[in-house]
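tokens incoming
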């Protein structure tokens, strides 16, 4: 590997690794040379790009399951194109890996946050919402069969667990599990020599 830094941040590296398209192709030599002269991209396409994406994803296996699930939920696309032609999917289908990651985080939230007994479906729906699902709190309340007030209360608990809390007069701030997972990923990317 060259001394050239491939990514500006761990988020850039993870976004690349989780969104690398297997259908990318290597660009002609003249275009790549022009990019280098103009200060363009790093040339991570074709087999080189696939290799880098695979290396990053392989190293994530060294992280705890919760951290991996958080990174999947944060960086994987929630949907993928569907060419079935049916009206039911609007040319998009659920990314089952993303769904599984959100479910795993929901299970951890049910265990980690007090009074979680019987709250798995609700907390999983709130995790999905935290990571970009478009469900409203009212829809979640309807789907799970609880009051909107319960959803609002649980939403604050799940968000604090994921995002963390800021320091206040009552005590120091606590980093959320999302920030801890990102810090662990950044340490791995730095160890691999991918970051500045």
């Amino acid at each position: 590997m060259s001394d050239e830094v491939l990514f500006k941040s761990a988020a850039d590296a993870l976004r690349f690794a989780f969104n690398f398209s297997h259908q990318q192709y290597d660009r002609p030599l003249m275009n790549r040379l022009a990019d280098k002269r103009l200060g363009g991209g790093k040339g991570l396409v074709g087999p080189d790009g696939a290799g880098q994406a695979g290396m990053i994803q392989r190293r994530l296996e060294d992280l705890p399951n919760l951290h991996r699930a958080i990174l999947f939920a944060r960086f994987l696309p929630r949907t993928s194109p569907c060419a079935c032609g049916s009206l039911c999917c609007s040319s998009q289908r659920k990314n089952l890996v993303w769904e599984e990651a959100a479910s795993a985080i929901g299970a951890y939230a049910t265990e980690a946050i007090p009074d979680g007994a019987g709250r798995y479906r609700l907390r999983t729906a709130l995790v999905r919402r935290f990571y970009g699902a478009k469900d409203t709190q009212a829809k979640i309340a309807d789907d799970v069969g609880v009051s909107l007030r319960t959803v609002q209360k649980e939403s604050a608990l799940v968000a604090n667990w994921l995002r963390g809390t800021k320091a206040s007069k009552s005590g120091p701030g606590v980093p959320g599990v999302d920030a801890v997972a990102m810090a662990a990923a950044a340490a791995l990317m730095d160890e691999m020599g991918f970051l500045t």
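note: The chain is about 55% helix and 5% strand.
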